Amino acid sequence: MTTKIRALMVASLALVASTAGAVDVREVVIPDSVGVAVEPAHQAHVLGEAIRDSQVKRTPTIWIVTEPSRTRALMPEEEARLDAIDAEAAEAARHVRTTLLFGFDKSSPAEWAALESSISDALRTGSVVKLVGHADDVGSDAYNQRLSENRAISVARYLIKRGVNKKNIKVAGRGKRDPVSIVDSSMNRRVEVDVVKAAGKTL
């Protein structure tokens, strides 16, 4: 008789003993082949142990694999992604951006102080200065287009007076398109200054 069958028989005896109530364990016949002897004084303990032993408890095996750190060559897509990140960072470093604000219907900014930090970069050899003028939404499209262009031109004249080569300045007007605020219209009356340094030039 296998161990599994023995365990099942012992468990059955325990069940009979627990449910019969008046049945004495001494009256229960256990085959000799089972190899289990139950004494009346120890019936609860012996049967209880048999029940626990019949329950097979298994826990899943957890494999922990540790490997020493090692270097490996980058895959082509990883190299391409890192190259793209480097190129984007290098391109961003070439740009020095400033915004000048203007009063209502004015072609000259309220002050030039915001532009001072960009002049040294604009004077570098190979730098290109992009000036884009903007206006608020008061007035016609045609009027605001001219106003935005005049604002960019006034900034260009200021830079030329400070020594920036006019051939390196590009001027454009966007009129009342591309507003940056729908709450504060004064933020839309502006010239965006973008000084693009020559490739390979750093601060």
UniProtKB/TrEMBL annotation:
Residues 1-22 form the signal peptide. Keywords: Cell outer membrane, Membrane, Signal. GO terms for cellular component: cell outer membrane. Residues 89-199 form the OmpA-like domain. Its main location: membrane. It is found in: Cell outer membrane. The keyword Signal applies. Pfam families: OmpA. The keyword Magnesium does not apply. PANTHER family: LIPOPROTEIN YIAD-RELATED (PTHR30329:SF21), STATOR ELEMENT OF FLAGELLAR MOTOR COMPLEX (PTHR30329). This is OmpA family protein. It comes from Pseudomonas kielensis.
